[in-house]
Amino acid sequence: MKVPSVVSALLFLSGCAAAGTSIPAPYGVTQTLTYADRNPDDPYDTEWKRPSKDVVLYPETQNIPLDNLKKHLRPPAPRIPDSYDIFVGLSSFRDGARCGYTLFTGFQRANKPSRLFFGVVDQVLDDDPRCIEEYCKLANEEWPYEKCRYHKQIRVEEFHADEARGPVYARHLQQQMIEDEEFCLQLDAHSVFTNDWDIGLVSDWKTTHNEMAVLSTYIHDLRDFIHEDGSNKAPYHLPHNCQTTRGTNGLVRTVAADIIVQPKFPQLTALWAGGFSFSKCHAEKRVPVDPHMLWMFDGEEFLRASHLWTAGYDIYSPSRTGSVVYHNYTQSSNHFERIQVDAKQHKKERTMAENRFRLVFDWPFMGEVDTFELTTKYAMGKTRSLQDYLEFSGVTFNPEEQDKDTCRQLYWVPYTDPSEVEELLGDWKMGEPEKPTTEETPKLQALRGISMPSDQMFAGGFFMVAFVVLAYVVFTKMPKRKDPEKSNV
Q1: Distance (Å, rounded) from C-alpha 224 to C-alpha 234?
Q2: Rounded to whole angstroms, how far apart are CA atoms 323 and 25?
Q3: pLDDT by residue for the chain (489 residues), tens digit each?
Q4: pTM value?
Q5: Residues 6+ apart with CB under 8 A from 155
Q6: What secondary structure, in 3-state letters, does 32-89 show?
């Protein structure tokens, strides 16, 4: 009799109820995350030989909170107007040729190039090729009857490379070029697009079923994923960020991406990647990049993720549908070491930025710190708490503890204070049911409709299992009927 297995299920349910959380039902779609078992003390240890681990993910359930009392809550549904523009931000450091090709493939391979606007922060020395000039050379060859086609849709902020202060400052300037576009894409300036990339990105973003979604990951190298005609040969193994380590002076950095096998849906993550980030532009406008984080490389991405998450945004790695742009990882010869920067000033600016980072996360530091606008314009969001983000991301600043990976199925965390998001969207209130869009499948409509209170869900499940156990016991104890053909009567 297999009653013990049923009893175990009952105990599991009661334990979840006591804890106030339970794992949502998995539904039909699954995808496998394969992640490296790294040395916790040195994730780049080449002598650490451990097999990778696999975990099954259930993306259809990821927008359902774990808290039983909040399972009826969902993020706001995506809003896509009939016509929309896309802003693409690029920050180029003495990389004109590759930057120009990024612009060219962006326009040439877009489904609606007239709806695209690029913003380029071009950091150059006097004799360096300019990004816009390199683009115009390619554009004039492709469209010879129109001088530098689409050049009016390219906004450029050019300044001398000696004035460069690292990627965060450049991304701040990049943000200033956003106008009234609906969607915003941030890329490294040495990326390559594929055909209809604009359609693929918006389609993938929509399947998050979250207006506050940000698609972000460490995108693949070019390899052979792009055919000569620009069509996409998307790989079946796509990057997903779920492990952190400590870089320069203990600042948080993401370890090289792990892999999801054949992802069918975008997958919720806690970590953001600077080389690929796609969202509604209200994310860029509501969560400004802090320009005082000078010379920050390690720490930049974690800081951005924490600002986005506390402001109500959720980060997802894209599926194959959204894997439409690739990274040119060939090494550039134009390094920061080649520019003229006062060494003492550089050290001072870098130390003050690192201390600013430490101050944000209530981490001890020594020396000067720049606190300008830290608690106002560049403060953490009010929608969710920083402490909740640290728990969600597995990152700790306790010297006696180590970071925990998030290589598992994550679940949407409802807003502690939804007022700013409600004000942004106007017609959405957290807790009120939304009408599903006409393009939703019946399965997703059913998924969105799960709103039974947790106590009712548990009670119903308990009695259902109890009924099955009772029926099984009664059935097995009933006397068996005699076969009339074998009766002695």
Answers
A1: 9
A2: 28
A3: 433 333 333 333 444 444 466 666 667 889 999 998 887 777 777 777 788 899 999 999 999 999 999 999 999 999 999 999 999 999 999 999 999 999 999 999 999 999 999 999 999 999 999 999 999 999 999 999 999 999 999 999 999 999 999 999 999 999 999 999 999 999 999 999 999 999 999 999 999 999 999 999 999 998 889 999 999 999 999 999 999 998 878 899 998 899 999 999 999 999 999 999 999 999 999 999 999 999 999 999 999 999 999 999 999 999 999 999 999 987 766 655 567 888 899 999 999 999 999 999 999 889 899 999 999 999 999 999 999 999 999 999 988 888 999 999 999 999 999 999 999 999 999 988 765 543 443 433 333 333 334 444 444 444 544 544 455 444 455 444 444 333 332
A4: 0.84
A5: 117, 118, 119, 120, 177
A6: EEEECCCECCECCCCCCCCCCEEEEECHHHCCCCCEHHHCCCCCCCCCCCCCCCEEEE
127 contacts: CB under 8 Å, gap ≥ 6 = none
In this structure, the strands spanning 116-124 and 86-93 are parallel
Return the closest-CA partner of residue 293 out of 312, 279, 283, 306.
306
Contacts of 205 (CB under 8 A, 6+ apart): 78, 183, 213, 215, 266, 278, 279, 322
Q: Which domains does the chain have, with CATH numbers?
A: 86-339+382-425 (3.90.550.10)
Question: 117 pairs with which residues across the strands?
Answer: 87
